[in-house]
Target: NAD(P)-dependent alcohol dehydrogenase
Amino acid sequence: MEAVKATAEGVKAVNAKKVKAFGTEAATAPLNQLNIQRRKPTPHDVEIEILYCGVCHSDLHTARNEWHSTTYPCVPGHEIVGKVVSVGNHVTKFKAGDLAAVGCMVDSCRQCDYCKEGLEQYCEEGNTGTYNSPDKHLGTQTYGGYSESIVVDEAFVLRVPENLDLAATAPLLCAGITTYSPLKHWNVGPGKKVGVVGIGGLGHMAVKLAKAMGAEVIVFTTSPSKVEDAKRLGADDVVLSKDEEQMNRYAGKLHFVLDAVSAQHDINAYLNLLRVDGSLALVGAPEHPLPVAAFSLIPYRRSFAGSMIGGIAETQEMLDFCGKHNIVSDIEMINIQQINEAYERLLKGDVKYRFVIDMASLKNKHAEQAKNN
Ligand code: NAP
Ligand code: ZN
Ligand code: ZN
Model:
């Protein structure tokens, strides 16, 4: 199949091939097997056979149109690791057989001030998301990692540290960088008391990373079953956030709070934990607004902020940091045919701490069976 697209340089023909994927046709429909097109690698492209793909809560928000911006069909997945199968003739960083990874972005304008500073996620023209963004090559939407393979410009492909378990490395590509970037930005390190709120995929990575950066880490969870476990992850203390007395112990005590909660919650309860000049950064992206009381911010000159994933150079820095400190995600491996059930469990906070899809399951017979059931 050949797609034709008009570009600034004129009309360009792009070859594409059919690839198996798992996605959804509507906000209320389950994910099921479907076919998508992937472009044939252009000179700067790397073609990757996807071996593992993490399941981020953003996949669920997007598949169900909770952010009101989804174009269907939607193929989620932006925690991708795999093996390079072919490269374009100008590619210098990768060759066939190498391990490679792709995170939340596959392109950006590369010319604006933010792109030049390595902040491609904040590109003035908007970054090209790994899924649910306009595809500059094929004129369709971009499709994510719940698929057999992906073709990405080498500038947006990451190197995987050889010493880490490959499946458990996949979640670093979103959960890892999304927590690493704000922890670095707000100077988390020795002498700093840091709160992590919501111990899911992102939160558990934040605990491991903040500990490795040398901070004292306090976990805030709604799940009694995570209290002991959070200590195993490295937390110095764990607070059951529904217990007001436990919460009061840390009122006005923390330098920084990273909030990775995916649903409605009282943000004021966490702003009140900050010291004078402390900051709370939201990485969690609930569907509805979070009301903030003026007096949660004013008396302590507190800052309420947000942070989105991380740039490409910073993502590589994070992967290398994880390689050096032997940090990976705690994962539960699933087959792609279990994805709808996994979404339901994710909504209940019932995963320790990241589902990772073994993409080999997309190739086996069960995929066809699930489709026919
Ligand atoms: P996740 O694995 O589902 O974890 C979310 C955690 O939030 C849960 O484990 C739970 O932790 C807590 N939680 C859930 N419902 C709650 C409720 N009603 N009240 C209080 N706490 C609740 O999700 P994730 O993949 O880590 O993603 C977290 C959020 O970050 C999502 O909204 C996602 O879209 C967003 N995200 C943002 C970026 C970015 O660039 N900013 C990137 C990736 C993801 P406890 O059991 O410990 O309470
Ligand atoms: Zn994500
Ligand atoms: Zn840009």
Remarks:
- The two ends are 30 Å apart (CA to CA).
- The pocket of zinc ion (ligand 2) is lined by residues 56, 58, 78, 104, 174 (CB under 6 Å).
- The domain at 16-173+311-363 is CATH 3.90.180.10 (Quinone Oxidoreductase; Chain A, domain 1).
